[in-house]
Amino acid sequence: MERIAIVTSGGDAPGMNACIRAVVRHGSAHDLQVFGVCRGYQGMIEGEIIPLGVRDVGNIIQRGGTILRSARCTAFREPEGREQAAARLRTAGIDGLVVCGGNGSMQAALQLSAHWDGGIVGVPASIDNDLSGTDTTIGFDTAVNTALEAIDRIRDTAESQQRAFLVEVMGRKSGAIAVSVALAGGAVGVLAPGLPQDLDALVSFLHSARAARRASNIIIVAEGDEAGGAFEVARALEAHMAMPIRVTVLGHIQRGGAPTAASRILGTRFGAAAVDTLRDGDGGVMVGIRGTEIVRVPLSEAVVEPPCVDAALARLIVGLAG
Q: I need a surface site. Which of 8, 29, 147, 237 has the fewest CB within 10 A?
């Protein structure tokens, strides 16, 4: 193993730059030549592979996004696109590849392995925390804290005007952000994929809260919830209540901004672990974390259905609503 490359793919996640930095510095410390693939798999297909040195990754650990940038690549979905990407890696003399991204990026890495015989190691980076085989992903902690800050601000208005608010958070098919934010933010309810949906019980609770003159009622809705987005849930609730329901969709603010300490540390640990995995000749895996230990998980296991939301946490949210 002499020449390795790192690519950031799919949706950006705070902490990706910490991972890039770790790959470059840890790789260089072990006499590896390190390269960066710009603009995800699209850049790989187009041969945008540049050398990265220690100075190139200075002063980036605190920055959100990814200095290598990312892109959605429809061409990579076809065998011809994947073969072209593999040819670019061979031309550049790349022996090992670190793929930093979410579920779709890991699936693409697995597909690439059928066209390219170099070592491939995945690094889970997704605000959605939607990969199996790891307790958490790069960017998840930052996204939760960003959403939590917004909800704390919304609560001020909710209490001042005694209103009910539905706050929609990101998460795709995973309800991890929604459950974590609801618990940490003191929400009275959460609607997320994988959790029982009981709008009648929610209506009953809101009626009781209004009668008791409860100051604020905040309900967290995951964007992928079976009941629909926050606006659809609001319409369903308003049909049974003589009061307006306010809706706030947090959207992409959850992706941006400086990564938290936890996201920076995780990105750094994962980046160094990915380099060590390539040096060991162990490709076709994703590094992850279980408890406090770094683990290696076959890519085929990492891309199965997202981990289930912890129903016990959801019950705790409701039980503490009062």
A: 29
pTM for this model (two decimals): 0.93
CB 219 within 8 A of CB 166: yes
CB 65 within 8 A of CB 12: yes
Catalytic residue, chosen from 12, 128, 130, 141, is: 128
Locate 62 and state its tokens.
Answer: 């605190």
Number of Cβ within a 10 Å radius of residue 75: 14
Neighbours of 196 (CB within 10 A): 9
Tell whether 314 is covered by a domain: no
> Cα torsion at 278, 281, 286, 287 (round to 10°)?
-60
Domain count of the chain?
2
| Host domain of residue 19 | 3-139+259-302
171 burial via Cβ count (<10 Å: 0-12, 13-18, 19+): buried
Per-residue pLDDT of the chain (322 residues; tens, 9 = 90+): 899 999 999 999 999 999 999 999 999 999 999 999 999 999 999 999 999 999 999 999 999 999 999 988 889 999 999 999 999 999 999 999 999 999 999 999 999 999 999 999 999 999 999 899 999 999 999 999 999 999 999 988 888 877 889 999 998 788 899 999 999 999 988 888 888 777 888 888 787 777 666 667 899 999 877 767 889 988 888 888 777 789 999 999 999 999 999 999 999 999 999 999 999 999 999 999 999 999 999 999 998 877 777 778 877 886 666 5
Catalytic annotation present for 200: no
Number of residues that this document lists for the chain: 322
Under DSSP, is residue 6 helix (H, G, I), strand (E, B) or coil?
A: strand
